[in-house]
Write a structure and sequence with these properties.
41% helix; 119 residues; 5 helices
């Protein structure tokens, strides 16, 4: 893994939320890492392909990157767009029972209104 890949992976892994490529790029600039936005996108794409991070695609939002690569769902606030991870034990096994086929992985987005937006 290249030095830049390692640095970007570290930024994603240290984050307490899901990040866009642009946010990763801005953090690189703050830390004095010399990299172009195009290179950030390219490296994040490679890290996703390698399985080091997970890309989250939500209609109407910029793609985000997730440090958690295990199977899980996302709670997405319909008001502010905040995304939170939610782990549903044995969900994959339930999907296999329902569909009758082996499930490799799943992407589940659950829309709701977060506590902050409900106030």
């Amino acid at each position: 893994m290249s030095k830049l890949s390692t640095e970007l992976l570290q930024i994603i892994n240290q984050s307490h939320r899901h990040m866009t490529a642009e946010e990763v790029f801005l953090l690189c600039k703050e830390r004095g890492i010399k990299i172009s936005l195009a290179s950030v996108y390219r490296i994040l794409g490679k890290l996703t392909e390698e399985g080091s991070i997970r890309k989250i695609s939500v209609v109407g939002q910029t793609e985000m990157f997730d440090k958690s690569i295990s199977d899980h769902a996302h709670l997405i606030c319909t008001c502010c767009g905040d995304i939170k991870d939610v782990f549903i034990d044995e969900f994959k096994e339930e999907l296999e029972k329902i569909t009758g086929v082996p499930v490799d992985s799943y992407d589940l987005n659950i829309r709701y209104r977060c506590e902050k937006c409900r106030r």
